[in-house]
Design goal:
Blueprint lengths: L5 E2 L1 H4 L2 H8 L3 E2 L4 E2 H4 L2 E6 L4 E6 L12 H9 L7 E6 L12 H7 L5
Parallel strand pairs: 1-4, 5-6
Antiparallel strand pairs: 2-3, 4-5
Length: 113
């Protein structure tokens, strides 16, 4: 799991499945998945299987701001142990290109440093 994501132990136990799921959710404007783009700020899974996600978008006018949170919730509910999902969107802190992973930078043709 990325070290810039705040994550509790229950969610961390599912990290491989979470990453795999997040990598299937693509930002259509940038054509990179939300995990490598760095859109996820926090993941918290409680004892009842409720997943809280705090995420952002690359800018406030992102065309997928209405659809991506619904897609995230729908896909995460398919993971065993996740019963419900609450996706909250924030613009504070503002997303920066420095949040793009090394893989994402290489994919987009940006210097990996």
């Amino acid at each position: 799991m990325r070290d810039d994501i705040v994550i509790n132990d229950r969610a961390l136990a599912l990290s491989d499945q979470l990453i795999e799921t997040f990598e299937t959710i693509i930002d259509p404007e940038i054509e990179l998945d939300m995990y490598n783009l760095g859109l996820i700020y926090e993941l918290n899974l409680d004892e009842n299987g409720h997943m809280f996600i705090l995420m952002t978008f690359t800018d406030t006018n992102c065309g997928c701001a209405d659809t991506m949170p619904v897609e995230v919730a729908d896909k995460l509910k398919q993971i065993d142990g996740i019963e419900s999902v609450d996706v909250q969107v924030t613009y504070s802190p503002v997303w920066k290109m420095t949040r793009i992973s090394r893989y994402g930078r290489i994919f987009l043709g940006i210097s990996p440093r």
